[in-house]
Design a protein that fits this description.
It is a single chain. Helices cover about 40% and strands about 15% of the residues. The protein is built from ten helices and eleven strands. It has about 290 residues and is an alpha/beta fold.
C-alpha cells in the first residue's frame, strides 16, 4: 500500500506556483484572489484562512471581504459585480454555506465566468460537460491531479464515485468520464453500493458519512480516494473510508487529513494564476514550470 500524499504533492505544486507568480510579477501582473464570506460560519473561517495562508505563501494578492449575516441578495450581487469589473481581481469565490435567506445559485451566476476559480458558474459547468472546460471545480481537479502525480491510469478504468454533489461527485464523474473511464455514480438511493465498488479499479468516496466504506466494499489492489472529512464528537478528523481496514487491500489510498484537502487549495491557486494569464492574453505554460 502506498499513500496518496496530497500534502506532499501540494507542497511541490506551491513551489511551482511561486515561480509562476514571480515571473508574472516581472510583467507587472500579480495574481489576485478575492474571497467573499457572509456571516460567521466557523468552518468557513478556517477554510478561508487556509486559502489566504497559501495564496500569500506563493506571492499572490488576497482580499477577504467579510459581509454581515443580514446582507441582502442585492447587496451581495453588487459586491460581486464590483470585483467582476475590477481589472486587478483575477479570481473570485463566494464561500459557502450562505445564510438561509441568500440564494446559492443566483450568487454563483453573478460571478463572471472568467473569474470563477471555483468552477461552479453554470457556463463553466456546461463547458465541463461538453469537454470544453477551462476552469473546473477544485476538488475534482485535485483528485485527478493527485492520481496523475502517482502515475495512476484513468483511461479505461472502472471507477465508482460515491456521492453526487454539485461540488464533488457529479463534476468529478463527468471529468473522469471525459478522460475515458467507465464511471458508476452511487448515492444514498443506490440499492447496493457494493455491487459497484467491489469490482472497481478506483473508488472515490465523497459522501460526508464517516466510515461508510470498509474492506468488504473493495477488491485487492484497489485505488481509494477519500474526499470525506468529518469531525467526530471526540474532535478527531476522519474520512468516509475505514482507513485501517481498507489500507490492507488497497494499492494506493489517501489519508484524512492530508489527502485531497491540500490538493483542493492548490487547484484554487493554480486556477487563479491561470485566470491572471488568460485575462492578460498570456499562456500559463510560459510561466508554470512543467512537472
Amino acid at each position: 500500500m502506498q499513500l496518496l500524499n496530497g500534502k506532499s504533492q501540494s507542497d511541490t505544486l506551491l513551489a511551482r506556483y511561486q515561480v509562476a507568480v514571480n515571473r508574472l510579477k516581472q510583467k507587472n501582473i500579480t495574481p489576485k484572489l478575492v474571497v467573499i464570506t457572509v456571516g460567521e460560519d466557523p468552518a468557513s473561517k478556517v477554510y478561508v484562512g487556509q486559502k489566504q495562508k497559501k495564496a500569500l505563501q506563493v506571492g499572490m494578492d488576497f482580499e477577504w471581504v467579510k459581509l454581515p449575516e443580514e446582507t441582502t441578495q442585492a447587496t451581495l450581487n453588487a459586491q460581486i459585480e464590483h470585483y467582476n469589473q475590477d481589472a486587478q481581481t483575477h479570481g473570485m469565490i463566494v464561500q459557502f454555506p450562505l445564510p438561509a435567506h441568500l440564494d446559492k445559485f443566483e450568487t454563483l451566476a453573478q460571478i463572471a465566468p472568467e473569474k470563477d476559480v471555483d468552477g461552479f458558474h453554470p457556463e463553466n459547468v456546461g463547458k465541463l460537460a461538453l469537454e470544453q472546460g477551462v476552469l473546473y471545480p477544485c476538488t475534482p481537479k485535485g483528485v485527478v491531479s493527485l492520481l496523475k502525480a502517482y502515475g495512476i491510469r484513468i483511461e479505461g478504468q472502472d471507477i465508482a464515485v460515491i456521492g453526487r454533489s454539485h461540488v464533488v461527485g457529479l463534476p468529478l464523474s463527468i471529468l473522469l468520464a471525459n478522460m475515458g473511464a467507465t464511471v458508476s455514480i452511487c448515492s444514498r438511493n443506490t440499492k447496493d453500493i457494493t455491487k459497484f465498488t467491489k469490482d472497481a479499479d478506483i473508488v472515490v468516496v465523497a459522501a460526508g458519512s464517516p466510515g461508510l466504506v470498509g474492506a468488504d466494499h473493495v477488491k485487492e489492489g484497489v485505488v481509494v480516494v477519500d474526499v470525506g472529512i468529518n469531525r467526530l464528537s471526540n474532535g478527531k478528523l476522519v474520512g468516509d473510508v475505514r482507513f485501517d481496514e481498507v489500507k490492507k487491500k488497497a494499492s494506493f489510498i489517501t489519508p484524512v487529513p492530508g489527502g485531497i484537502g491540500p490538493m483542493t487549495v492548490a487547484m484554487l491557486l493554480e486556477q487563479t494564476i491561470l485566470c491572471a494569464c488568460l485575462q492578460n492574453h498570456l499562456d500559463l505554460s510560459d510561466f508554470l514550470e512543467s512537472e
